[in-house]
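WARN retry 2 of 3 for item q-0093 after timeout on previous attempt; input resubmitted unchanged.
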Amino acid sequence: MSSSNSREAQFEHIVSALRNSLGAASGRVRRVFLDAIRKTAVEFQFVAIGLRQACLVDSVSVDRLILDDVVGQLRKISSGFEGTFVLQEPSSSQVFLVNANILLAELRNGRPTETHFITASDVPKRIPCPRGVRSALSFLEERFRDVGASDCIIGVDLPPMSTSDAIALAGYLLEYPVSYAPVLDTAQSQVFLSNVPLKLVNVSLELAGRRSLSPVRLPMWWL
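OK item q-0093 returned
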């Protein structure tokens, strides 16, 4: 089987596993539901083949236990998923699919993060990796200390962390070149960039003149 056919088969396996675990939609929501699943499947595939360290599962509403089941199914039919795990940050309910091989290689080799953290304050400034992010990464390194990335760990819950640290951790996991580390007081602890408009643009990936992915809306500063 060619590499292209193998990737296509893997993609369809991901779509099937997500549909089986999330259930079927009907009526007017069916197309939206299926589009969201296929978008999630693309992101899962990028993580599984090592193009991305992690993806945030936000196109479909799903809890960690269901994703554990999805990854368990995918590990049986695709070796690429043996090196992935589901990570939940309970304070913000963010759920990620993470490529453990990439993450653990960075942690175990002591490589500095390529993400730059800045405060989202009136006068933004660059700061070191926040303590809460370092603690979360140390927790993951310890969690995997005595096992290989391809072993049986599928789902991991992080200890509770502050909203500020959860935002910064997401930026690190998603390999953003720059991540906010908001400075929040008690009154602002659940509010971040509230009522702040973002300029979004449509981005498409084309290979040899052929569009291979549907347009994705991204904040303009991300480009």
